[in-house]
Design goal:
Shape: elongated
Radius of gyration: 18 Å
Low-confidence stretches: none
Number of helices: 6
Number of strands: 0
Structural class: mainly alpha
Largest sheet: none
Strand content: under 5%
Oligomer: single chain
Order of helices and strands: HHHHHH
Length: 137
């Protein structure tokens, strides 16, 4: 397999922040760039952003993962998110800009209904979302 070296310009602040996060995940910038390019090549499209849940939603997810959350019945993911916000004391309407993406909302709804997988840590949950997302491509 042949490889190609490519040079491009990145703002220093962006590079420093991104590389720090990449290294915290035990990866190298080259591994991440190769993975991104492979996803694009395999799918024929740009990958969608994996938005992370806001602080309130992340706290609610962590409680459910630890088995400390309340089980409630809801009809859909939007209703589940609204109920979780209510439990967390978040009085914003459920249609604010800080809503979780569809994948996160669906996972929240499954957990609230007592379905889905349970994870030891929030990081394990996030990694599973990334894996499921890449499996769909």
């Amino acid at each position: 397999m042949h490889s190609t070296a490519y040079t491009f310009h990145i703002p220093t602040q962006t590079k420093n922040k991104a590389f720090t996060i990449i290294r915290q995940h035990g990866k190298t910038p080259a591994q991440i760039l190769n993975h991104l390019l492979q996803q694009i090549a395999d799918s024929g499209q740009l990958p969608e952003a994996d938005e992370q849940p806001n602080a309130t939603t992340a706290t609610a997810i962590a409680e459910l993962v630890r088995g400390e959350g309340e089980t409630i019945e809801t009809a859909n993911a939007k209703e589940a998110v609204a109920k979780l916000q209510q439990i967390a004391g978040d009085d914003r309407p459920p249609d604010t800009d800080e809503q979780p993406n569809a994948t996160t909302a669906a996972a929240i709804a499954e957990l609230v209904r007592g379905e889905g997988k349970h994870y030891e840590t929030l990081e394990a949950f996030h990694l599973s979302l990334l894996q499921e997302s890449s499996d769909e491509d």
